[in-house]
Amino acid sequence: MNASAVPVPPLKVAVVTETYPPEVNGVAMTVGRLVQGLRARGHLVTVIRPRQPGDGDVGAGGASAPADRTVAGLPLPGYPGLRFGLPAKSRLLREWRHERPDVVHLVTEGPLGWSALGAARRLGIPATSGFHTNFDRYSVHYGMGFLRPAVAAYLRTFHRRTRATLAPTMALAADLAGEGIPGVKVVGRGVDTSLFDPARRDDGLRAAWGVGEGGLAVLSVGRLAAEKNLPLTLKAFAAIRARRPDARLVLVGDGPLRRGLEERHPEHRFAGVRIGEDLAAHYASGDLFLFPSLTETFGNVTLEALASGVPTVAYRSAAAAELIADGVQGLTVSPGDEDAFAAAAVALALDDAGRPRLGRAARERALACAWEQVVGDFEAVLRAVSAGDGPQPYAAEVAGAAGSLPSAPTV
Description:
This protein folds into 2 domains: about 10-190 and about 370-385, 3-Layer(aba) Sandwich (Rossmann fold), CATH 3.40.50; about 200-365, Glycogen Phosphorylase B (Rossmann fold). It has helices at about 25-40, 90-100, 110-125, 135-140, 150-160, 170-180, 205-210, 230-245, 260-265, 275-285, 300-305, 320-325, 340-350, 355-365, 370-385; strands at about 10-15, 45-50, 70, 75, 85, 105, 125-130, 165, 185, 215-220, 245-250, 270, 290, 310-315, 330-335. The chain has 15 helices and 15 strands. The chain is of the alpha/beta class.
């Protein structure tokens, strides 16, 4: 028999995460897509996550499957609706001794993730990790910048103990590899282009925002929190409004800054959290997307805006650096240059003839970002690690062959 015809057995994968659908954030959406994609390919995936109100211990409902597990958790300060998982090493040791996964994938670096890493190492189960959030950068925005070196060291220590760390962009992968994290792989992000589609533009929604015929709807989508650099969004929009009195700013999302922003800026539209087709309609009904965040590892909202045919103004970092060619799908400026960001926003706001062209190019760029390819890259890393490929983690007790993973790009 031809070796290529030999069927490849499905993987048993344990995914440990502190956020998962129906929670609304980029990490939850990404993990949900990856899990769904692996299951569609026939792999046996168990999700282990903190228990939410109303959850049972098994079969947590929502996007979960009967094999999924929930563990004890506590509310995450400043993030209502999210919880961090408490350590569950003893329980995981019992369960994984009974039904051993081929590989453990660690999404988050909290207490639950650390305990899962410890259990996997104790049992000699290879583990991979995802680098989803720049928590060290977040500390600066919450008045704890003095903790940034310690947080960065904590993250490096965690990821050095896994066989592979998955990063969504080449730039982030290079940064992580430069910090001494072994086995860094690039596994990007995808977008549902059947959901996020310019065809969902809704004139009735625009009218509800106060945008008349020929008016300009400026969008901001994401968590209303300090790390999203919302003061620059407001500054850029004020510059737009000075030249375009018909412009309206629509902020989609929720967070700790919302109440204060609504009190200080009643002239703006605060749409709150939107999901599914409702969210897609909000994107497609905009004319211009502003995204000034500098804390992203990727920024899924950038890709969703592009798929919706909305030209974007962003700093040249994270997803924008890899998806937006300046002047083609939107405008990008050097990270941290606030004046340049505001000037780019004004320039695009005034370019009524050019925005549709950029919007079409944005849509074309997003069409190349299929989740199927992303899931395939993820699967390839998991399969290689489960087979013993990949660099040795920083731990003498974990056996494994040295080397590099064969599939996803290596830095």
